[in-house]
Amino acid sequence: MNFIFFDEIKQQSNYPYYHIGAICIEESNIKEIENAVNGISQIVFGDIVLKRETEFHAVDIFHRKSNFKNMSNRDERNEILISLLEVLARPEVELIDIQVNIDKLYNATYAPDYAFMFLCEKVNLLLKFQ
Question: pLDDT tens digits for 63-79?
Answer without folding.
Answer: 999 999 999 999 999 99
